């Protein structure tokens, strides 16, 4: 079910993109990498839009620009893997945030996991999830997914993103 909200007559215009970006830079967010595979095509990207949506049933979400190079695979994938990154994985986050590179080439260490999704080594937690719905939201899509397999490592500190930089919890 998709709910469309109409802007009431006389409502103000949305804020400018630069102001919006500046405001959101003040929000600290955990860093994840989302991966998928469709017909032999691998895709992965770094995101800070990951969140828990529901406990019953378990459901998570993340957002991705529909102009992103990973979108064609994510748009078709039945399953994705969400990797919660550890504070030691800043370079992995940078790799998956870089356009025009083979994100799965060495030194990226990964293996094929359940449902054929690529699983990155060393993540603090991994949620292999079945995609439930994709909702268009402006120039992005909100992807809702139901975790069906999970793994976690030690309880190390997470990698965070704040004010345009990767940060460590201290």
From TrEMBL:
The keyword Zinc does not apply. Residues 24-168 form the Flavin reductase like domain. Keywords: Oxidoreductase. InterPro entries: Flavin_Rdtase-like_dom, NADH-dep_flavin_reductase, Split_barrel_FMN-bd. The keyword Oxidoreductase applies. This is Flavin reductase family protein. Pfam families: Flavin_Reduct. It comes from Luedemannella helvata.
């Amino acid at each position: 079910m998709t709910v469309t909200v109409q802007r009431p007559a006389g409502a103000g215009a949305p804020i400018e993109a630069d102001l919006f970006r500046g405001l959101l830079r003040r929000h600290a967010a955990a860093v994840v990498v989302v991966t998928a595979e469709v017909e032999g095509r691998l895709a992965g990207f770094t995101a800070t839009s990951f969140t828990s949506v529901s406990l019953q049933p378990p459901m998570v979400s993340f957002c991705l620009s529909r102009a992103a190079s990973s979108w064609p695979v994510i748009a078709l994938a039945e399953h994705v893997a969400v990797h919660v990154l550890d504070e030691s994985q800043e370079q992995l986050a940078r790799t998956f945030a870089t356009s025009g590179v083979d994100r799965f080439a060495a030194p990226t260490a990964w293996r094929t996991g359940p449902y054929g999704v690529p699983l990155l080594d060393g993540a603090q937690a991994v949620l292999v999830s079945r995609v439930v719905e994709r909702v268009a939201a402006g120039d992005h899509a909100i992807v809702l997914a139901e975790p069906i397999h999970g793994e976690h490592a030690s309880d190390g500190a997470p990698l965070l993103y704040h004010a345009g930089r990767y940060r460590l919890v201290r």
